[in-house]
Amino acid sequence: TLGLDVLDSFVVGDSLSDIQMGQAAGCLTALVGSQDISQDLKPHPGPDYVADNLYAAVRWILGSGGDQRKS
Fold first, then answer.
1. Cβ contacts of residue 62 below 8 Å, gap of 6+?
2. d(CA 5, CA 41)
3. Per-residue pLDDT of the chain in tens (71 residues, 90 and over written 9)
4. How far apart are CA 27 and CA 35, in angstroms?
C-alpha cells in the first residue's frame, strides 16, 4: 500500500470519471474547468468543489474548503 489517508486526500479532475473515482475512493473532489457535467452526475452527488482553473482548486485545498467534508 501507499500509506495514503483518503480522508486527508483530494482528487482534482476535469471529467465525470475523475470525480466518480475520487468519490469511490473516499476523497474530497474538485472539478476543474467550465464544462457542465451536472446532467451526467445525476443521480450521483456532485464534486465537493468546482473551480475555474487548477490554481483555484489548489487554493481551495490549501484553504478552509479542504477541511469541510460533505455529510
1. none
2. 25
3. 678 788 889 999 999 899 999 999 999 999 998 666 656 666 678 889 999 999 999 999 998 655 655 54
4. 21
